[in-house]
Design goal:
- This protein has one helix and 36 strands.
- It is mainly beta.
- The protein folds into two domains: about 120 residues, Immunoglobulin-like (Sandwich), CATH 2.60.40.10; about 270 residues, Methylamine Dehydrogenase, Chain H (7 Propeller), CATH 2.130.10.10.
- A hairpin with a 4-residue loop joins strand 31 and strand 32.
- The chain is elongated, with a radius of gyration of 24 Å.
- About 50% of the residues are buried.
Length: about 400
């Protein structure tokens, strides 16, 4: 069976490289090939010629060529590559090599370009600031299919990448404190229990949240949406449109919420932490701090919850129940935290910090001195937003 499989693979490779339709020709390889490292990916750019089909070959090996990719460990090909081509599913810290050849009319590929290489790395270390979006504060950010940021007086904007922005027509004038992506699409929540729902980030509809209390944070586990706020209020929805009020068992304000490892974790004033496995029954747990906790995130590959707050407070937990206080990482209040391959925490005075495990942190230059109120992860990058329309992103 192994011999048959190897023979079949070899025949398939021959057909792939030779082309299977008549009349096609080889083409010159593209010029100006560059490989740029990004989060779990590499962006390969090159100069395309008209009517030429390009195949991009890659592998974590400097022995790669356009003809041996089937025998090089980890070798793969992207057929009909288009510049700039993002190659995804790569391991951070591993160097990958790339070569491209071309053909016309389905013919055999010509010679491959000289190898270029890049090493994917976690996003969050190098930030690019954009022009202010508005003169008032942006308070929440989320990624679904695009990024959405919300803020004071119902301000809303969307962007696919953090560089090109679109203003969203206001549907309320209430302050919007948070936005998240869950069942039904995007959900924005804010002052007086205001809640908005959108399937596409463009058209928004007000929905009843079940409360008149200020809501400060929300999250989803893919089956239920939950929002939290003043005096321990908790409200939940299975569709984003119909919400029901719950009881978190605390009267302290809840400012942050996350779901991970089968558990909801809400954090808030005076070091408050309440947890739940079903979003219905909540229990208070010891946070090991009395500082106001502003946000919490779960890092899946780190298998860790991280909560941040006033005075640079950082606490961590593997299960959301048993917490350990870590040394403060800043004198500034930390307002938000997110995770892709590493944690990124943001806060007042443009503070940005990164950590692989939630324990050891490094400062990253943000390029701004404005207060940062929110950070969101998606599309191979982090996006942060804050005071006076501040916005920045890091790939």
């Amino acid at each position: 069976m192994n011999r048959l499989f190897a023979f079949t693979l070899a025949i398939a490779a021959v057909l792939l490289l030779a082309g299977c339709s008549g009349g096609g020709k080889s083409a010159e390889p593209p010029a100006s090939v560059q490989a740029t490292a990004a989060e779990s990916s590499v962006v390969v750019s090159f100069t395309m010629a008209p009517n030429v089909d390009y195949w991009l070959f890659y592998a974590p090996s400097g022995e790669l060529t356009s003809t041996n990719f089937t025998s090089v460990p980890g070798g793969k090909v992207i057929v009909d590559a288009v510049s700039p081509q993002r190659v995804t599913g790569l391991a951070n810290g591993t160097t990958y090599y790339f070569t491209i050849n071309g053909r016309t009319g389905g013919g055999p590929g010509g010679s491959g370009t000289a190898l270029v290489s890049a090493t994917p790395r976690p996003a969050g270390n190098a930030w690019i600031a954009g022009p202010a979006l508005i003169s008032t504060d942006l308070r929440g950010a989320a990624f679904g299919t695009v990024f959405v940021v919300v803020g004071a007086n119902g301000a809303m904007f969307s962007t696919p990448d953090g560089a090109s922005w679109t203003a969203i027509s206001y549907v309320v004038t209430s302050d919007l404190n948070a936005v998240f992506y869950g069942v039904g699409g995007y959900i924005a929540v804010g002052a007086g229990g205001v809640a908005l729902l959108s399937a596409d980030a463009a058209t928004w509809t007000p929905v009843g949240s079940g409360t008149a209390s200020n809501l400060y944070a929300g999250a989803s586990n893919g089956a239920i949406n939950v929002a939290v706020g003043n005096n321990g209020v908790v409200t939940a929805s299975a569709d984003g449109a119909n919400w029901g009020l719950g009881n978190a068992g605390t009267t302290n304000h809840l400012y942050g919420l996350a779901y991970g490892n089968g558990r909801w974790v809400a954090v808030g004033a005076n070091g408050t932490i309440v947890t739940s496995t079903d979003a219905t029954s909540w229990q208070a747990v010891a946070s090991q701090t009395t500082s106001d906790l502003k946000a919490v995130a779960y890092g899946a590959t780190a298998a860790t919850f991280v909560a941040v707050g006033a005075g640079g407070t950082v606490i961590t937990s593997a299960d959301g129940v048993n917490w350990t206080a870590r040394p403060p990482i800043s004198a500034n209040t930390l307002t938000s935290v997110g995770f892709i391959a590493q944690f990124v925490a943001v806060g007042n005075s443009g503070s940005v910090f990164t950590s692989a495990d939630g324990i050891s942190w490094q400062a990253a230059p943000s390029g701004t001195g404005g207060n940062l109120n929110a950070v969101a992860a998606g599309n191979f990058r982090f996006l942060a937003a804050g005071a006076a329309g501040t916005n920045l992103y890091a790939e």
